[in-house]
Design brief:
Length: 97
C-alpha cells in the first residue's frame, strides 16, 4: 500500500522475487511521506554511530533492537539506492560528494 520509498522498494523487491505486486495509492502522484524529503534518503557508514544518533533522537520511544536494526539498514541503503539508480541512469548525490 502506498507508493513512497518504502512501498515502491517493497513492491520492486517482491516482484524481483517472483511475486505479483500491486501498488495502491490514494493520491494521483507517487511520493507518500518521502515526497517531503525531496527525494533524500538518510544513510550512514557506521552502524554504531548511527545507533547512537537514532537513540539520542527518538527519546526512548523505540526499543533498542528496533533502533539497532534501523541503524544497520541505514548502512546499506546508499549502495542499494545507487543500484536502483543505475537502471535509468539517475544521478545520485550525497553530502559527501
Amino acid at each position: 500500500m502506498g507508493f513512497g520509498f518504502a512501498g515502491g522498494i517493497s513492491a520492486l523487491n517482491a516482484a524481483q522475487c517472483g511475486a505479483k505486486t500491486l501498488l495502491v495509492k490514494k493520491s494521483t502522484l507517487p511520493g507518500g511521506l518521502s515526497i517531503c524529503s525531496y527525494g533524500a534518503v538518510r544513510s550512514a557508514g557506521d552502524p554504531d554511530k548511527a545507533f547512537q544518533y537514532l537513540k539520542a533522537t527518538n527519546d526512548g520511544r523505540t526499543p533498542d533492537d528496533v533502533v539497532r536494526a534501523l541503524a544497520h539498514g541505514m548502512c546499506g541503503i546508499e549502495r542499494y539506492v545507487r543500484e536502483l539508480a543505475e537502471i535509468n541512469n539517475a544521478k545520485i548525490a550525497t553530502s559527501r560528494d
